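User: Fold both of these, please.

Assistant: Here is the first one.
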Amino acid sequence: MQVLAGPGLLLHILAVTFFAVDVFMSLNPHWFSTIYGLYVLGGQAVSGMAFIVLISLLLSTRKPMDGILQPRHIHDYGKLLLAFMMLWSYFAISQFLIIWSGDLPEEIGFFKDRFVGGWGAVALGLVLFHFAVPFLLLLSRDLKRDVRKLSLVAALLLAMRWIDLWWLSAPAFSPKKLTLHWLDLAAPVAMGGLFLWLYAGQLAKRPLLPLHDPHLPEAIAAAEAPHG
């Protein structure tokens, strides 16, 4: 898996970039951005890390992970969640500032459609609840070491990821007025349910702890050292 991880990550970055251009950017054919793929990829990193935190909450009450997951492990998850959220925010503000400072007619249409009408409130919500509020909360060391509190922030970010993807796509169909189609809710629920079903099946088949890992006893001992 370590051998496959590096090349697999590069292939994933390319695949997400093409996906972002073909599925999202193509909705506004006269607009372009060289950082758009990374923006979507950064959002994926936030979603993935938030999902890991929520799964950790579930596994922390069940064997064998109930005796393995320690506050310092959760703390690392919290730091990674903060880092990925700031990475997404960096890509978002970089894309916006470059287009705003250039002020070219062929570029500003994308944000103009998403800052008028009800879409402006959605954009403000993304600033507040996808960055500002989680950023302030994740600065707390105590929160990052409490899996239940951290899971609340992770759930908020996971919900905001859906809103961000909705904000990227829906204004292309209704640029002057905020609209919410029933498929905007049904499609994520259906696809998310399918993913969870497949994920749960794989989780039940595979060992939760790495087999034959020479560093595992050391990691567990280090985690339990403060209690000894």
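And the second sequence with its predicted structure:
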Amino acid sequence: MVDNIPKYTPIEKIDGVYVKRDDLYRRAGCCGGKVRACYYLATRGTGRDGGLITASARRSPQAQIVARLATYLGREARCHMPTGKQTEEMQDVVAHGGTIIQHRAGYNNVIIARAKADYAARPGWRYIPFGMEDPGAVRCTREQVANIPREINRIVIPIGSGMSAAGVLHGLRDRGLDIPVLGIRVGANPTKRLDTFAPFGWRAMMSLVDVTPTVAYHKPVTAQLGGLPLDPIYEAKCLEYLHRNDLFWVVGRRVKI
């Protein structure tokens, strides 16, 4: 995949729905807004040119992104995650030179604490937060709220960590746009993270709904919008919620292994 670094990823109309193609941001063989944010966190400032350390779920694309970007930057990557069967995402981390450190206690706060301790013991390395919980990651997305067509009725966005949605909400407020947002909750409850990173009063800007209860987070769904393949864990589960003239914010698409 060739790097594609547009200032603003485009908005296209597909089957009556406007689509924010943030999946067209491409770097290091990965695509999407999470890649943009990770690259920013990995390269901002000076004095920390060592490897990258992160915490991630076993099925999350975050560890893949970190490992591939580390290789792209000529660095090492150490990815902390729970014990369990090796996933395709984990195989891809190893294939791109990343080291996986698994921990028996599978709670996120335990995995995050182990990753932070590893980071503290490695001067010059950089820590890429779980869910990329950093104001810089929010800023990377809020800057993409541009060239919004007047015709759209609302913005629909999949919700995992909630960080991309926080960026979209900030971007709308920056530009004085009063457009309702529907967040399709695919993973765990994001409200605590949104309370921290989204603009004050975000509940008046965005409604949250859960995906169909029978569609578990780890269960992939194969779907396309027009001819656009959608990420099987996130975007593919949002199709039933889309209406004509919605703006569907495609955060990204995981690497096909």
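The mean pLDDT is 93.
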